[in-house]
Amino acid sequence: MNTPDIGGASRPSAGALRLVEGRTSEPRTVDISDYLRAVAAHCPFLMPSVARGQMGWTVYEIATDAQADDVEAEVFHAGVQAAEWIRPLTTRPHGPLVCENIVLLGGDTTAHRALLAWPHWVLKHLYGPVGLMFGKFWTDEEGTDRRGRRIPAPPFSFLAARCAIPPVDPRFLTDTPDLAQSLSTAVDDGRNVFQGLPYEWKAVKNWASSLLSPQRPVPPVKRSAAPRSS
């Protein structure tokens, strides 16, 4: 996994994730079409993003015997790559439609929620002040939208990065009011979001653990991921 120039952010632990399919708007290794059509009713930006080819997908698989901390580190690093890809595109025509998705396959799928939790928590705090939103979705997740309508369960786990919509998105951050306020007035001034912060994953995670919230993620149990299913 390559690293964009963001002031020297450290590279992840090698080998925890295997690249299955590089960035593409039409992935072949996961079936997105039915899921996107089903979810479109809950997001008016979804299908326009797809139609304009502004939704990207990168697919990874958890390596056999990968440790949870190493998987977290590489998911986080992939999220940084996605965010830095998006940042210069947000000011171009149709910038609000830009979206990057990091798919996580393999291992014990029931552990995906925990593996995405800390990278998501860190990324949304790093990039919210410059106007990016991160979402996490795990296999067979059950949920409803703000109108109480059932949201179709994802067929795979993924982390999503997109341009924030300031009039709308802060309402999704009621548990993090400081971040909601920051997002509502966010402007990307080109800053290095790591300015003054450590770059190594465990140190960044430690920094993020100090951010107060009643729903701060709980670290997953440290054990080897289950072997990939055949």
Task: Explain briefly what this protein structure is.
This protein has helices at residues 33-39, 46-51, 68-86, 112-127, 177-184, 201-209, and strands spanning 17-24, 55-62, 99-105, 132-137, 143-144, 150-151, 157-163.
Describe this structure in words.
This protein is α+β, with helices and mostly antiparallel strands and 230 residues long. Helices cover 28% and strands 17% of the residues. The strands form two sheets. A five-stranded mixed β-sheet has the order 1-2-3-7-4. A two-stranded antiparallel ribbon has the order 5-6. Helix 3 links the parallel strand 2 and strand 3 (99-105). Mean pLDDT is 84; it is low at 1-5 and 220-230.
Q: Top keywords for this entry?
A:
7 strands; disordered N terminus; two-stranded antiparallel sheet; alpha+beta; 5-stranded mixed β-sheet; disordered C terminus; 230 residues
Number of helices: 6
Q: Helicity range of the residues?
A: 25-40%
Distance between the ends: 25 Å
Q: Shape from CA axes?
A: globular
Main sheet: strands, sense, barrel = 5 strands, mixed
Secondary-structure-based class equals: alpha+beta
Mean pLDDT: 84
SSE order, as H and E? Answer: EHHEHEHEEEEHH
Largest sheet, spatial ordering of strands: 1-2-3-7-4
Radius of gyration: 17 Å
Strand coverage percent: 15-25%
Weakly predicted, low-confidence segments: 1-5, 220-230
Q: How many strands in all?
A: 7
SSE layout and pairings?
Elements: E1 17-24, H1 33-39, H2 46-51, E2 55-62, H3 68-86, E3 99-105, H4 112-127, E4 132-137, E5 143-144, E6 150-151, E7 157-163, H5 177-184, H6 201-209
Parallel strand pairs: 2-3
Antiparallel strand pairs: 1-2, 3-7, 4-7, 5-6
Helix pairs in contact: 3-4
